[in-house]
Amino acid sequence: MKKSITPNLIKQNNRSLIYHFIYENKSVSQQDISYELHLSRPTVTSNLTAMEQDGLIQKNGQIDTELVGRKAAAYSIVSNYRISIGVEILKKEVKMIAVNLYGEEIKHITYEIVFERKEHYFKTVCEQILHFKDSLKIKEEQILGIGFAMQGLVTPDKQTILYGKILSCTGLSIIEFSKYLPYPCSFIHDAESAAISELWVSPELEDAFYLSLSKHLGAAIISKGMILTGKHGHNSTVEHIPMQPDGVQCYCGKYGCMETLLSLTSLLEEQENIEEFFSKVRLKETDYCNRWHRFLADLAKAINLLHLIYDTDFILGGYIAQYLCEEDIALLHKKIQQMTPFEEEQDFILISKMPRHNISIGAALPYIKEFLNKIDISF
Fold first, then answer.
1. At 228, which CATH number?
2. Looking at the structure, do residues 368 and 326 belong to the same domain, yes or no?
3. For residue 280, which phi and psi values (nearest 5 degrees)?
4. What CA–CA distance (Å, rounded) separates 167 from 150?
5. What is the pLDDT of residues 233-246, one digit of tens each?
6. Tens digits of per-residue pLDDT, 129-165?
7. Is residue 201 within 8 Å of 355, Cβ to Cβ?
8. CA contacts within 13 A on the Cβ side of 46
9. What is the model's pLDDT at position 379?
10. Are 182 and 314 in a shared domain?
11. 220 and 344 within one domain
C-alpha cells in the first residue's frame, strides 16, 4: 500500500533535504538553499531556525553575493553535534580515535594493553575508552556509538567474533565490552573497517579489491559501492590462500598462506620499526632492499592471481600504504606484467587515499552513516 503524503512528511523531507544540502556543500546561504532545492524562502527560513535551535547547524561567517547590500549569512552543520569512537584491538595495544560527522579526526590515542580474554582486560579497555571520552569535553548524548575493529571475522549482527585465531577470541561477545559502556557497541572485521574508510573518502568508488597490508594481511571486495560479505561470513579471506605449501606456518594452522608472505609481521624482523625499515630501503641499503623486493615479488604474485579472478582496480591500504611510492608501484606492475597473459595498464594498482588510522576510523564510521541516514527521510 502506498504511503500517503502528509504535511508532516513534507516538513520532515524538507528538513532532511536542507540538512544534507548544507552537509554536502559545507557553507551555504539561505538563497543557495532556496534556489538549488526549489523551496520557498519562508520554508527555508523556518527550517534553518528550527535546526539552529536544535544545535544541528550554525551560522558560520558570511558569503559574498553578486547582490548589492549586506553579505548573506553562511550556514554550516555543527560537525561535532554527534561523534563516534573507533577502537582497534591489537595483541599489545589498543588504538582509539574520535571522529565527527564528516569522519574527520577529533583526537586519537594509543594505549599499551596486552590482549587477554579475561574480565580484567575488558574492564581496563573500557575504563580507558571512558577516560578518552572525558578528554574530549563532550556531553554523553553526543556519542553515537563505539565500533571495535577486530583481527577476526564477525557475525552479520556485529555482536560476536566468528573466527578469531590471531587473538584466540573466537566466540567472543560484544557484551564483554558493552556491559561497561553506556553506548551502543559493535564489532567489525579490521579489513572491512579499512575498506569502509576508503569508501568514505572516495564516494565515487564503485568496484575494487582492497588489500590491507598491515600487521596481518586482510582484504575486502567492493562491488557497486558496497562491501561483499559472502554467504558464510568469510568472504575475501585471501590471507589464507596457500602460496607456498612448504612455507611458514600461518596462524590458521596451514602452511605458506598469503598471510605468511604479505603481512607486516612477515616483512619486519623482531623489534624492527616500519619507519626505520623504509628509511633504510630509500637509502638503498642492500639487506633492506632485498627484503622489500622479495615482498613486492610475492605481492605481485598475489595481485596477479586475484586480478585474473576479479578484473578490477586494486587498492593497497593498511600500515604499509603510507610508505609506498611510485617507484614501488612501477616495480610491482612490471613484475605482474611478467606473469599475466594479458597486456595490463598500470592504472589498476592504486594507493589508499586514507592510509593513516584507516582501521580505527572505519570502525567509527558506521555509526556516523546511521545517524546521517536517519536524518535522510524520504517519501
1. 3.30.420.40
2. no
3. -70, -35
4. 9
5. 788 899 999 999 89
6. 999 999 999 999 999 999 999 999 999 999 999 999 9
7. no
8. 7
9. 29
10. no
11. yes
Pairing of strands 143-150, 185-189: parallel
- Residues 355-374 have a mean pLDDT of 93
- So what's the pLDDT on residue 1? 44
Q: What is the mean pLDDT of residues 277-286?
A: 96
C-alpha cell at 166: 590471531
Q: For residue 1, is it within any domain?
A: no
Neighbours of 296 (CB within 10 A): 18
CB 179 within 8 A of CB 127: no
**Across 215-229, average pLDDT:** 92
Q: Residue 304 is part of which domain span?
A: 205-351
Angle CA(27)–CA(32)–CA(35) in degrees, nearest 5? 155
Number of structural domains the chain divides into: 3
Residues 128, 216, single domain; the answer is no
Higher-pLDDT residue of 161 and 229 is 161
55 plus 127 within the same structural domain: no
C-alpha cell, 82: 554527534
Is residue 379 in some structural domain?
Answer: no
CB-side exposure of 300: number of CA atoms within 13 Å?
21
Three-state secondary-structure class, residue 135: helix
pLDDT at residue 288 is higher than 80: yes
Residue pair 204/198 in contact (Cβ under 8 Å)? The answer is: no
DSSP output for 4-72: P--HHHHHHHHHHHHHHHHHHHSSB-HHHHHHHHT--HHHHHHHHHHHHHHTSEEEEEEE--SSSSSPE
**For the segment 100-118, what is each residue's pLDDT rounded down to a tens digit?**
999 999 999 999 999 999 9
